Amino acid sequence: MCGVVGVISSPERIDVHNVSVDGELAAAGLCGMTHLPTGRVCVRPARHLGSCDFVAPEAARAGLRGDAAARRQSAPTW
Ligand SMILES: [Zn+2]
User: Fold this and answer.
1) Could you give the CA distance from residue 58 to residue 15 in angstroms, rounded to a whole number?
2) Which residue, 2, 19, 42, 58, could crosslink 31 as a Cys pair with Cβ 3.0–4.6 Å?
3) What is the Å distance from ligand 1's center to 7 Cα?
4) Range of lowest pLDDT (12-16, 62-66, 71-75)
5) Pairing mode, if any, of strands 54-55 and 40-42?
6) 53 alpha carbon to ligand 1 midpoint, in Å?
7) Domain ranges of the chain
8) Alpha carbon of residue 53 to chain centroid
């Protein structure tokens, strides 16, 4: 055995620590990929298929707040 264990066992998303991913959106289960030249962020679900759908960060956060409130009501398990 090489002795290196436990490194990949965390359920935490590794890509959240990438500077090009918005941590707040990623924590909410969204893609959060940031288009660095414009600062716009992707609001599609995490690991979505196809290309990112970038929107203004203000709009993303506004949607995030509404989304989170809606999810708390419809899915209390997370
Ligand atoms: Zn995306």
Assistant:
1) 22
2) 42
3) 26
4) 71-75
5) antiparallel
6) 6
7) 17-74
8) 13
pLDDT tens-digit map of 27-58: 999 999 999 889 999 999 999 999 999 999 99
Of 31, 34, 41, which is closest to residue 62 (Cα–Cα)? 41
Residues that place a CB less than 5 A from ion ligand 1 = 31, 33, 42, 44, 52
What is the CA(62)–ligand 1 centre distance, in A? 17
What spacing in Å lies between the alpha carbon of 31 and ligand 1's midpoint? 5
CA dihedral sign of residues 11, 16, 22, 24: positive
Q: Cα of 33 to ligand 1 centre, how many Å?
A: 5
Distance 68 CA to ligand 1 centre (A): 18
Q: Name, in order, each residue with C-beta under 8 angstroms of 4's C-beta and a sequence gap of 6 or more.
A: none
